[in-house]
Amino acid sequence: MRNWLTLAVLVVDAAVLAVVELLFLPLRFDGYVLPNALGGVPVPLSALVAALTTPWLVSVAGRLSPKLLVAAAPLLAWIVVVAIFGMFGPGGDMVLISDWRSLLLFACGALPSAIVLGRVLATTLTAPQ
Known about the structure:
The protein is mainly α. Helix content is 69%, strand content 0%. It has four helices and no strands. It has helices at 2-23, 45-64, 68-87, 100-126. Helix 1 packs parallel to helix 3. The relative contact order is 0.18.
């Protein structure tokens, strides 16, 4: 029972992080949130957060159970929320911006998480029974 509660918290965490990362995707040095120090240069902070948190959530879920669906649950939740909330955001607005930062967010969130998921599955398949 405790593992299911922990997994639910991990999945909700991945979904909330995906929403926050999408909302901070258009962040730039333009004087609104960050200082106007570099003349409006984009800051891919969301991609950095995704690259650090999503693989960690997958590894924690992989420690709960070696099953594929359990270990991949945070990654699947993150991908679904990024896709749905990014395309059909609040009020029908498209939150995903059409430049390199959206691709970087998806790559930094999904790629390292898939590598961690593969490592989790490989260790469970090669572990002595």
